[in-house]
Inverse folding.
């Protein structure tokens, strides 16, 4: 009689499935924990926005008696009242200032980053150190000299005052961000464009800008958030009510409305909506570009 050894029943093989099942269970537990954490963060971010939007549909009594509940009878006219209380004008002013500063910051920073990474220019390292040093300046400590400078340039109490300042204080950081991204991009594509007869200007617009689209979108989103929410410069350098942006305008509206909280919440919800739309449109490029730029 011949005995055959069943190798499939060895102890090592028999112990493999429980170990594999344990690893699978651990991976599944980590995945559930990660999803639960992300869900909690999403709720923490979205709930205040939803609460603010729903509060704009309540009456004053409902806001104080049941602040966390839903309105018994939604007052949709509250949003129209906020619109006519001046939110429309503040919104247009913020759109103008934000759009102009975003365009200026992205263009100037992209040109500067391209020069620092691709051109053999003298004093490039001191220029880079100057850019890094400018990032350390605090905007609020320069309000007094900036006020004198804007008056000397005859742009005090104009849109240009905010556009110039928003651009000047964000160009250093944006240049640093775009430069870090360009350092990780291959130069062979640009060299091929030169061989085909393209100049520096054509190479920049047709090769570098498309390759750097993620970081440019990231820079545009960051600048939009800064310019849209900036308060100190808009408060000090704009005194004309017709030129006030949303942060200052909503603060003034809160003083005028006294205790009409639903209209104020409606105005805040309207003010937050454009930036939510901007982020949703650019979120894919924003995450990719920011991670690549900061990771260098």
């Amino acid at each position: 009689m011949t005995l055959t050894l069943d190798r499939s029943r060895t102890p090592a093989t028999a112990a493999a499935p429980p170990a594999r099942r344990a690893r699978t269970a651990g991976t599944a537990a980590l995945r559930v924990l990660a999803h639960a954490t992300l869900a909690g963060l999403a709720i923490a971010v979205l709930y205040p926005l939803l609460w603010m939007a729903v509060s704009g549909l309540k009456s004053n009594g409902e806001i104080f008696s049941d602040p966390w509940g839903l309105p018994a009878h939604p007052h949709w006219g509250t949003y129209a009242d906020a619109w006519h209380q001046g939110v429309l004008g503040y919104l247009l002013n913020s759109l103008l200032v934000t759009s102009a500063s975003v365009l200026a910051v992205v263009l100037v920073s992209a040109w500067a980053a391209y020069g620092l990474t691709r051109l053999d220019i003298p004093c490039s390292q001191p220029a880079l150190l100057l850019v890094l040093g400018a990032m350390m300046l605090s905007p609020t400590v320069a309000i007094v000299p900036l006020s004198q400078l804007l008056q000397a340039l005859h742009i005090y109490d104009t849109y240009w005052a905010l556009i110039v300042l928003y651009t000047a204080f964000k160009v250093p950081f944006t240049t640093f961000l775009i430069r870090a991204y360009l350092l990780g991009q291959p130069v062979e594509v640009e060299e091929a464009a030169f061989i085909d007869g393209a100049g520096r200007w054509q190479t920049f617009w047709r090769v570098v800008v498309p390759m750097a689209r993620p970081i440019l979108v990231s820079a545009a989103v960051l600048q939009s958030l800064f310019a849209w929410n900036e308060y100190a410069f808009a408060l000090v350098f704009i005194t004309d009510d017709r030129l006030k942006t949303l942060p200052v305008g909503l603060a003034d509206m809160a003083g005028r409305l006294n205790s009409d909280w639903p209209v104020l919440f409606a105005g805040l919800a309207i003010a937050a909506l454009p930036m939510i739309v901007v982020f949703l449109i650019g979120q894919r490029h924003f995450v990719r570009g920011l991670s690549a730029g900061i990771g260098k």
